[in-house]
């Protein structure tokens, strides 16, 4: 499958089968994140694989958007390791790095026919406490992953795109 087909077919899965993800496929997804580019290659991100019964139950209590997935990935970044712009201090890379890594993993999952959903609906401070996240890490997103259920379909907004001229400015 070429990249554009892969990217177009990927959608936010909000209903999953009970089928576990094979360990070799999970490792391939995690490896796709490990090789993702990050600012100055600092690799300031962390991925927490929430797959134990207790961890999955806990994240489902904290977010309605775990969507009964068998695994939920929690992406954070380490504030002590993120790159920062020496010309303007407010520009830092942690959130961007975690997002790049998550995107790589999301697309690798799609190639393996494993669905995913990018989730920002969760209370970061409660997630930090519930999973004993170190104080120097900031949660960025959750990503439920698993095999889509037979009822799973893309949102009606999935193929609605703005015109290229509205999004891209050639200067």
Automatic annotation (TrEMBL):
Taxonomic source organism: Mediterraneibacter butyricigenes
Domain Nitroreductase: 8-65, 67-147
Similarity-based family: Belongs to the nitroreductase family.
Flavoprotein among keywords: yes
Claim: Hydrolase is one of the keywords in the record: no
InterPro entries with a match to the protein in the record: Nitroreductase, Nitroreductase-like
Necessary cofactors: FMN
Coiled coil segments of this chain: none
Pfam family, one: Nitroreductase
Name listed for the protein in its UniProt record: Nitroreductase
GO terms, molecular function: oxidoreductase activity
Annotated keywords: Flavoprotein, FMN, Oxidoreductase
